[in-house]
Amino acid sequence: MTLMNFKSFRTVFTIAASSVILISGCGSDEKVPETKNDTQKKDTVSETAETKSSPGKDFFYMKSSSNNIACADCHGDGTNSDRPLTKYFSDIKGADKRKSTFLGKISGEEVKKTAGGATLCWEAYMKMKTPMTPEQIELLNGYYASLGTGDTQSDITYETIALPQKDKAKLKTEQAEILKLTGDPLKGEVLFKDACVTCHGENASVKKVPSILEDFEGNTKSITYNVRFGDGAMPFFKLNLLSNQDIADLSAHILKINGK
User: Fold this and answer.
1) Predicted confidence (pLDDT) per residue in 149-179, tens digit
2) Most buried pick, 83, 100, 118, 145, via CB within 10 A?
């Protein structure tokens, strides 16, 4: 997928005052949200996300033309809890106030410079070909600020073996432990519909991802690898949100569907 260059971005701004819905805009065939003048920005920041739209919010919701993923598909802003993946990934309230993100991989001034780590998601998960522009980073930071901090803490901590670097020894231990568990395919089906169907289901909204319910060539070890480490556009899941038993249940469902 290609990204509009800055000149194109400014041209769209002069044509329209509103923008099309992302972190997680996009290719040359997409409209990228426009920046407003300083006075308009101040007014936008004072508006609540629950009732008002803004260029920053539009950017947060805009779909990638590469794989149809938006920031809002995985990260909550207080208004999109109907999207099942938001319960598995960090929300954006207070993201502009955090001292670090990605468990310290990004810290200090780099947090704002990367829009709370959104620039990493932009390339890794949304598969953007060119970096996020300073204007787009400003849009996201402005939207974060408009949401306030709510009850969220400034820094989010969680358990994972994927950061700050992949713990391959721990992965092998978990794979062995999960193989000893008896998976329940019925529970796995429920989990699959909740955590996986957005990308891997029959009517998945995300493009260019493999259907693991058709001709799946993997096994429980490969499923564990993808859940714990992520792979390509697939993010890793936190340890406390998908347990070893959950992975065993998911594997039982997937393998059963595929006749294994």
Assistant:
1) 765 556 777 899 999 899 999 999 999 999 9
2) 118
Report the C-alpha gap between 162 and 34 in whole angstroms: 35
DSSP state letters, 221-235: HHHHHHHHH-BTTBP
Residue 101's SS3 state is strand
C-alpha span between 193 and 208 (Å, rounded):
19
Q: DSSP 3-state assignment of 210?
A: coil
As a whole number of angstroms, the distance between CA 117 and CA 125 comes to 12
| Distance, CA of 227 to chain centre | 14
Distance CA 116, CA 65 (A): 22
Place of tokens 């955090």: 98
Pairwise pLDDT comparison (60 vs 98), residue with the higher score: 60
Summarize the confidence of residues 119-128 as an average pLDDT.
92
pTM above 0.85, yes or no: no
Fold for the domain defined by 168-257: Cytochrome Bc1 Complex; Chain D, domain 2 (1.10.760)
Residues 34/55, Cβ–Cβ less than 8 Å: yes
Domain ranges of the chain: 6-147, 168-257
More confident residue, 1 or 56: 56
At 191, list the tokens. 């989990």
Length reported for the chain:
260
Q: Which two tokens stand for residue 66?
A: 């590469």
CA distances in angstroms from 13 to 16, 32, 81, 84, 221, listed in the order given: 5, 9, 30, 33, 49
- CA torsion sign for 140, 124, 219, 172 is negative
Burial (Cβ within 10 Å: 0-12, 13-18, ≥19) of residue 247: buried
Non-local CB neighbours of 150 within 8 Å, separated by 6+ positions: 78, 93, 94
